[in-house]
Design goal:
Layout lengths: L2 H15 L12 E3 L6 E4 L4 E4 L2 E2 L4 H11 L5 H6 L3 E2 L15 H4 L4 H5 L2 E7 L4 E6 L11 E5 H6 L7 H7 L1 E4 L2 H10 L3
Antiparallel strand pairs: 1-3, 2-3, 4-5, 6-7, 7-8, 8-9
Helix pairs in contact: 1-8
């Protein structure tokens, strides 16, 4: 399976599913400050509809981010962050100018030190989602978990052990592909 093509098709399907404009002129893919290359149409002086734009993120860019996080990213995640520039609301947005800014906001030293890659923030409930990299390189076994940010931020970065952290994690999906399918391909 070509992972990058799978991610591309999933992003496109998700974008198409919610790309309707209401009678009032609203669309889920509207926001202020859309770069010109990502604009579909201006709605007013401030708001524009955006479109997916093929990513200019390089292998070297991803390698630098891996080094910054101190982790080796799974192939599914590498494809996930290097396929399209977007402003999706269910994952960190990746605009053209600084595509990793919101991803870097996910960084948590304790999670990374203990082998978890934080990749998404549930803003509604304040939970951080992460990939358990302990089983790498077998991505089929790298589960997806979430942790309440308040519990995480109360943990001692220097003294918390992996098993103590794991007790506070909530299992969500067996791997990243399953997470991706549920989030982007299944209709809610």
């Amino acid at each position: 399976m070509d992972i990058k093509e799978y991610i591309k098709n999933g992003f496109e399907a998700y974008y198409a599913r919610y790309n309707q404009v209401t009678e009032e002129g609203f669309c889920r893919w509207m926001r202020p400050d859309v770069p010109d290359v990502m604009k579909v149409a201006d709605v007013d002086e401030e708001w524009s509809r955006w479109k997916l734009v093929p990513s200019i993120v390089s292998h070297d860019d991803v390698a630098a981010l891996e080094e910054e996080f101190g982790l080796k990213f799974p192939e599914w995640y590498k494809a996930f962050i290097s396929t399209y520039h977007h402003f999706f609301d269910v994952i960190p947005e990746q605009g053209i100018d600084e595509p990793f800014d919101y991803i870097k906001d996910m960084y948590n030293p304790l999670l990374c030190k203990l082998g978890y890659l934080p990749f998404s923030w549930d803003t509604e409930y304040g939970k951080l989602r992460c990939i358990d990299l302990q089983e790498s390189p077998d991505e089929e076994k790298c589960g997806i978990y979430e942790i309440d940010h308040e519990i995480l931020f109360e943990m001692d970065e220097e003294n918390t052990e992996r098993n103590e952290l794991k007790e506070s994690l909530i299992f969500l999906y067996p791997n990243f592909k399953t997470y991706f399918d549920h989030t982007f391909l299944e209709r809610s």
